[in-house]
Amino acid sequence: MSANPALVRNMLRTYGRQATTARRLARYKRTLRAAGAEDQVAISREARRRELVHKVAAEIVESLIVTGSENPVVEDIKRELERTFKTAFIFAYPPEDQDLQIFKVLGENNAVEATGNERVRILEALWHIALEKVDETMI
Fold it and tell me: Does pTM top 0.90 for this prediction?
């Protein structure tokens, strides 16, 4: 018995979305628990804006980059990252794993996983680029 590749691809895409949603929900629950233990603090408008920029950038880095969103901000971030490292990247959360995997595209059908210090540099650059782009686009 053979499976239709399109059906398998759709199933895997749906499973990826469900896994991403589960990670978001877990992160949201942790945030709620942590927020319940803290006192209400009045913060300045600039501090609230900075906090919002960080939240949006984190959402972009953790989910939209991986799911392949067609959001123009996400596309700008990817292009800037590719310009910085002079290579294309594939971001993925493998099933059953919580860590983001980063693959450098070396050719038409060839990709190598970035590990160690290189992975750290890519993630740092991705975070800084995301912060800059979100900050630029926020009103």
Answer: no
